[in-house]
């Protein structure tokens, strides 16, 4: 731009001006402009002429093949078009420019001596939106290695990893592939479970994008072992109620199969399982036990348990059928069991209740009688003892023994009467 080639006697620009002033008619010059175009775009190659006198103008490509000879197409390539040929300006266009079109295009003026100027065509290749490649999977507690790649750009694109508006410095590598560049930026970051789903992005910037960026968004996929939690039903469960448990499972990948089981037992026949839900309708105390929910993925396994206790219908007083009560008795606290028994007697034998009410005076009489019998027996024993003793002493003291004996006999008779009366009474 700063200087122009001249033909004939003309020398560099400063002198040229002077020279041309002197010999206006003869001082011809050609001036070429460098041009930069996006790949696939259209390049304009212009040769400015000064003091053109009708000489032949030749335009050549970087391989020095003649494209146009004084306005006439020479090379059979339709991408080149002569668009302008005036005494001041010769202009051709090149459509669908590729990087292989790069180089110096020659603007030549054939006169007494050949003179040329070179227009350098540069092709710019902006990057496509970069791609992200996982070099090392993100497992909880480990590190993830990610590469952001821009396979083709010219000049080389600049890649930046971003997270929450902050740059994560990466290791950049650049490869030259015949005029274009492949660029990558690799980061390694420690990951935890909470990072699962975190948003990262890789931004490619390039001079041809005029300040804009090509951004690839990436969500961290952090693998972690499952967690399992059974959501227990509120309140207590009674016989006849239905049980519904939900197993809430996390994990990445999310475990597909959720296994339900009962510890040391088989699952009840009535259990209905549908993925994370477990149901038993019409509970009965035989259903009690510990139920397990288990899940696993490639990174581990987890389980939670729920202990089911089915209570019996304590509030029920009159409508308890006698048969089912036998089952819950075993598992029940003592008081309700006794209550059930007492109430169970009630509707069965009303007469029994009446008897228990009138039983009090009978008991008193019975007690009195028992005391009487006891007394009689005592007297009897004493009498027998005395008589045995007197029989021994009878041989020595007859008279005194008789008196005594008479008294005892009377008493014995009386006692006998009393005991007989009691017997009758009882019968
Ligand atoms: C055109 O580009 C060439 C090669 O890049 C350079 O040497 C020359 O100085 C440039 N010319 C102008 C006028 O900028
Ligand atoms: C070259 O082309 C220009 C423009 O068409 C014309 O004026 C000039 O005479 C031509 N020169 C020769 C030598 O044919
Ligand atoms: C542009 O050139 C490329 C090869 O350089 C070719 O594949 C493509 O078809 C061309 N496009 C047009 C519109 O000619
Ligand atoms: C226990 O009570 C519930 C309602 O409180 C009732 O649905 C169920 O049938 C009762 N079970 C028995 C065995 O009586
Ligand atoms: C299951 O049975 C084993 C051995 O019989 C026993 O040690 C364990 O406590 C039982 N578990 C439950 C929850 O009943
Ligand atoms: C409830 O379960 C416990 C433990 O398995 C058991 O000892 C008890 O007998 C069970 N009760 C009933 C009514 O089945």
From TrEMBL:
The way it spans or sits in the membrane comes to: Single-pass type I membrane protein
* Keywords, in A-Z order: Disulfide bond, Immunoglobulin domain, Membrane, Repeat, Signal, Transmembrane, Transmembrane helix
Residue limits of the Ig-like domain? 12-124, 127-216, 226-309
Q: Which GO terms describe its cellular component?
A: membrane
Q: What is its main location?
A: membrane
- Answer whether the UniProt record assigns the keyword Aminoacyl-tRNA synthetase to this protein: no
Family label: Belongs to the nectin family.
Identify this protein by name. Ig-like domain-containing protein
- The species this protein belongs to is Pagothenia borchgrevinki (Bald rockcod)
User: Lineage from the top down?
Assistant: Eukaryota, Metazoa, Chordata, Craniata, Vertebrata
């Amino acid at each position: 731009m700063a200087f122009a080639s001249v033909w004939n006697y003309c020398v560099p620009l400063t002198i040229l001006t002077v020279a041309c002033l002197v010999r206006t008619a003869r001082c011809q010059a050609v001036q070429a402009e460098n041009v930069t175009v996006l790949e696939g775009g259209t390049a304009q190659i212009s040769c400015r002429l000064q003091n053109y006198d009708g000489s032949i103008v030749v335009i050549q490509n970087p391989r020095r093949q003649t494209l146009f000879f004084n306005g006439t197409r020479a090379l059979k390539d339709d991408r080149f078009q002569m668009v302008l040929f005036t005494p001041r300006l010769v202009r051709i266009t090149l459509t669908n420019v590729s990087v292989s079109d790069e180089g110096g295009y020659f603007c030549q003026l054939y006169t007494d001596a050949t003179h040329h100027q070179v227009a350098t065509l540069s092709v710019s290749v902006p990057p496509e939106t970069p791609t992200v490649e996982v070099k090392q999977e993100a497992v909880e507690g480990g590190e993830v290695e990610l590469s952001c790649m821009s396979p083709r750009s010219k000049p080389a694109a600049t890649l930046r990893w971003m997270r929450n508006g902050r740059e994560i410095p990466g290791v950049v590598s650049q490869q030259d592939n015949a005029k274009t560049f492949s660029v990558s930026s690799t980061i390694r970051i420690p990951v935890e479970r909470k990072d699962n789903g975190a948003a990262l992005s890789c931004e490619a910037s390039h001079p041809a994008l005029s300040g804009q960026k090509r951004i690839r968004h990436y969500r961290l996929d952090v693998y972690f072992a499952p967690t399992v939690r059974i959501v227990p039903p509120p309140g207590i469960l009674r016989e006849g109620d239905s049980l519904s448990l939900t197993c809430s499972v996390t994990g990445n990948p999310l475990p597909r199969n959720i296994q339900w089981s009962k510890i040391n037992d088989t699952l009840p026949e009535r259990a209905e399982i549908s993925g994370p839900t477990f149901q038993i309708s019409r509970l009965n105390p035989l259903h009690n036990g510990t139920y397990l929910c288990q899940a696993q993925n490639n990174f581990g396994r987890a389980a939670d348990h729920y202990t089911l206790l089915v209570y019996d219908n304590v509030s029920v007083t009159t409508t308890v059928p006698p048969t089912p009560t036998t089952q819950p008795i075993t598992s029940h606290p003592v008081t309700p069991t006794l209550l059930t028994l007492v109430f169970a007697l009630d509707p069965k034998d009303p007469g029994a209740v009446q008897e228990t009410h009138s039983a009090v005076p009978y008991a008193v009489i019975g007690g009195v009688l028992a005391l009487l019998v006891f007394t009689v027996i005592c007297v009897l024993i004493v009498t027998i003892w005395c008589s045995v003793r007197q029989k021994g002493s009878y041989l020595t003291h007859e008279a005194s023994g008789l008196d005594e004996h008479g008294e005892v006999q009377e008493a014995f008779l009386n006692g006998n009467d009393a005991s007989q009366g009691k017997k009758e009474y009882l019968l």
